Amino acid sequence: MNYNNENLPIAVIGAGPIGLSSAVNLLDAGLTPIIFESGDCAGSNLASWGHVRMFSPWSYNMDPKAVSLLKKQGWDEPDLSAFPTGSELLERYVLPLASHEKVAPHLHLNTRVVNVSRQYHDILRNEMRERAPFVVRVSNPEGDRDILVQAVIDASGTYQTPNWLGAHGIPAIGELTASQSITYGVPDILGCCNKQYAGKSVLVIGGGHSAFNALQDLVKLSDQTDGMRVLWGIRGSSVDNIVRSPKNDELQERRSLEVHIQKLLDEGKIEVFTNIAIEKINCENDKLIVKSHSSQLPPVDKIIAATGFRPNLQLLSELRTSIDPATQSPVNLGPLIDPNLHSCGSVPEHGAAELSHPETGLYVVGIKSYGRAPTFLLKTGYKQVKSVTSKLANQVIDDDPVANRSFSCDDVALNRSCSA
């Protein structure tokens, strides 16, 4: 069979900041993107944590090429030293970029990518595989259809697939049954979710900055509401390392949050339970009882699971991917970002070469490229996109000798208060 892929577009899965950056960079390279967003607006996942203030300033959170494009339309650039919330990032950057006259024609909203494969090739078939276009199956209100593309950039993120509470990496016994009383991520406790938590006993599970955000909001709500109880469960044996960022931390919002949580602990406003490994969640008398090892925690009304996120690998299951068994990132990237081995300060430079898979033309970028590793920065993602676009366009950028190895360990840091 003869294949002619040159005139086909390049699929971009997800219209968040990294997906839109991919589109802008592809257009700049003379390539045609087709962007699929499952939500009813670009960056729909940002709205889920819109109340959370990011650790990184505006200067870290915008793609230079996108900024240049927006400025040509008279866009009002935010204060680069200020720290946006998720909502501010959405409203002041993502939505204006998505509606730009060069980007908007390529964007398909309410369109979920269900599967990606190769035309007339299942995962086993070799013959002419690399020459076959990709088949992207999408689902929207009009039904399902297949779209042919020459390459795929998966920037779908991880926010829709949170980690389970269970200590084994699978749901704790009873977790699914109790799902109506469990929230994954960081709910808007002081805003639209106020009534769910006011006057309730709430257990937060997780030892990272997502948990910190939930805890500080719960304590603030408890100061305004009688009868509340704020509990915190962590896997570790102590909370001695709450303030772990250096005084001169480049991301000062991160350190400020840590200092605030330490203050709340010192004031006794948070009940701490250590060495928690959740095996079972029982529902008794409209209360949730978490069982860990041979002990159990006090009954609570609500649980907030601030336990991080994982990539949806099912989406690409009919393609030949090479996944690191620990991080679930691309195999060449995994050892460089494995949080069991590295801190952000020891992550080596990496780029398109480390993001590639055996399936030629497939790249996973953005936070999804980090799999389950929790340390990612939007600034890192924009450099990933630059590198991948250069590779896809078969370009050699003379003024950038590291086009395919384009960023350093200083860029690898937690991007927002809510771990993603």
Which characteristics define this entry?
17% strand, alpha/beta, 5-stranded parallel β-sheet, single chain, 420 residues
Helix content: 10-25%
C-alpha Rg (nearest Å): 22 Å
Major β-sheet strand ordering: 3-2-1-7-16
- Derived from helix and strand composition plus strand pairing, the structural class reads alpha/beta
β content, as a range?
A: 15-25%
pLDDT < 50 stretches:
395-420
Shape: globular
| Biggest sheet character | 5 strands, parallel
Overall pLDDT metric: 90
SSE order, as H and E? EHEHHHEEEEEEHEHEHEEEEEHHEH
The number of distinct helices, counting runs of at least 4 residues, comes to 10
Topology, number of strands: 16
Terminal CA distance: 43 Å
Written overview of the protein:
With 420 residues, this protein is an alpha/beta fold. 23% of the residues lie in helices and 17% in strands. The chain has helices at 17-28, 44-48, 64-71, 86-98, 194-197, 209-224, 252-266, 334-337, 352-355, 378-392; strands at 10-13, 33-36, 107-108, 112-118, 134-140, 143-149, 151-154, 182-184, 201-205, 229-233, 271-273, 278-284, 287-292, 295-296, 302-305, 362-364. The longest helix is centred in the middle third of the chain and has 16 residues, at 209-224.
